[in-house]
Fold this sequence. Notes:
The protein is of the alpha+beta class and 277 residues long. The protein folds into three domains: 2-135, no CATH class; 136-164, no CATH class; 169-275, Immunoglobulins (Immunoglobulin-like). It contains seven helices and eight strands. The strands form two sheets. The chain has a five-stranded mixed β-sheet, with no helix packed on it.
Amino acid sequence: xxxxxxxxxxxxxxxxxxxxxxxxxxxxxxxxxxxxxxxxxxxxxxxxxxxxxxxxxxxxxxxxxxxxxxxxxxxxxxxxxxxxxxxxxxxxxxxxxxxxxxxxxxxxxxxxxxxxxxxxxxxxxxxxxxxxxxxxxxxxxxxxxxxxxxxxxxxxxxxxxxxxxxxxxxxxxxxxxxxxxxxxxxxxxxxxxxxxxxxxxxxxxxxxxxxxxxxxxxxxxxxxxxxxxxxxxxxxxxxxxxxxxxxxxxxxxxxxxxxxxxxxxxxxxxxxxxxxx
Length: 277
């Protein structure tokens, strides 16, 4: 079973991360395991399923493709979740990535097992380490230093960072009642109170006046404002709303307006199932 060592390590690390999130969410180990879980494991599991043979790819190619495919797979999973009732939240993202990694790893294990032992990918990190030793690290270090110097000088003297034109924006967010990006109201009865936390942070480099409108179809569920904020000033408040009509997937929109303009400046939404009694 040595040819499954890498996949078993990924499964064990993923399971450990899930346990940490469930029982010790503030542990530093969560960050340590979370970075490879998002940036490496999905791509590596997919590469293992696509290329189970020893000679399909060398160590550096597997490493590079694992990182690159992870950066492609994770946004796609997020895009799919965005069009589901669960949305882009911690639990759905964890579930989606875990299922993807588990499915690809299972396929990879089946494919490796069906190959003759001499053709299986050995699941050994030594070839990767040996490949890393052959890289021209001196050239890489000089190139990285030159790029870092260029960026530093650019931002220091304004070539890249001196002008802030186009960087102004307003942060607009909706949190669940617990103050986190989870626990949003998903199932309600008609007339039942739903509670969220709305937040606005002004990064416009000037004072601005805001208003918020909560809407479900043609029904206006609530309005707030005017809210006057200086640059970098923050407003956050608990808001309750009531839905008046039943529906399987009711889109509750949070519209942010700035300086009295008629068109919404920012939009957020939740999908809610509204049941009649």
